[in-house]
Design brief:
274 residues; disordered C terminus; disordered N terminus; 12 helices
Length: 274
């Protein structure tokens, strides 16, 4: 809901930048969460870690309780919304679902297995990787968040996702902490643009009356990704090791980029459906 209203409030020519800045709060917690997690585990156990996480979740609930829905006038709100099947099957949204599925699957694999990957290189904690990841992503959104709107979201999406893939390539051959930090920088740069660019394209192409449903489906892909990525990449790691698994993630992202541009060809240069 916040993304829906925020997207309506931000001028269309700066929509990607607005969504990117809005998402900074989530990226900051990636870096801080990793630092807090390592600090707690250095003196306590996972039980205390989960209790602390529960406390933050309760705080978030308390802060959200005063929020109220606000309705904004829109010319298209008088048009009846279609079914969810029709919305998700909209031709110019299909490339977004494909790119989102590969990105979220890669993102889930990274966050699930980075903690177990670190000990294989005797790195100890993962705070350095995620601090670099979040720091770069936040910096790009705050100081260079205008780039996608300036050069075009479609063009930036391919660059960002391939940058994310390059981070996994580095992880697949990493042997030192400096290499892992480099991977964190590349993945952070890729994430910094990929998520808001996909969201911006979704907002632009979805009809105003159906925008909330389209966004809900987009975030559902995000939430379902760990259910699929965890078991699949876990099996690959057990059978072939982390290097092969991370290389497979990089290939998945490359395929996602290729499929996005392949299926999005009719929409290129054409007026998007609003």
């Amino acid at each position: 809901a916040l993304f829906t209203y925020g997207a309506d409030l931000v001028p269309a020519e700066r929509r990607t930048q607005g969504l990117a800045i809005f998402g900074v709060a989530g990226l900051v917690t990636i870096g801080l969460g990793a630092q807090f997690g390592d600090a707690i585990l250095a003196y306590a156990s996972y039980r205390e870690l989960f209790v602390g996480a529960l406390g933050f979740a309760a705080l978030g609930l308390i802060l959200a309780l005063p929020l109220r829905d606000v309705r904004y006038a829109h010319d298209e709100l008088s048009v009846p919304a279609r079914s969810l099947v029709a919305i998700t099957g909209q031709a110019d949204l299909l490339p977004i679902w494909i790119a989102a599925a590969t990105f979220f699957g890669s993102f889930a694999a990274l966050f699930i297995f980075m903690k177990t990957f670190a000990p294989t290189l005797n790195l100890g904690g993962v705070s350095g990787f995620f601090t670099a990841y979040a720091g770069v992503a936040v910096s790009l959104r705050l100081f260079l968040g205008w780039l996608p709107d300036r050069f075009g979201p479609r063009r930036m999406l391919g660059i960002a996702m391939l940058c994310y893939a390059l981070g996994f390539v580095i992880l697949s051959v990493a042997q030192t902490s400096s290499q892992v930090l480099l991977a964190g920088v590349l993945c952070g740069a890729g994430h910094g643009y990929t998520y808001p660019v996909l969201f911006s394209l979704l907002v632009e192409r979805a009809k105003a009356r159906e925008r909330g449903s389209a966004m809900a489906f987009y975030t559902t892909i995000d939430l379902l990704s760990p259910l699929l990525a965890g078991p699949i990449f876990g099996v690959v790691i057990e059978l072939a090791g982390y290097g092969t698994a991370f290389a497979g993630v990089a290939l998945l992202l490359a395929v996602g980029v290729a499929l996005f541009y392949w299926f999005d060809r009719p929409a290129a240069g054409a007026e998007n459906v609003r």
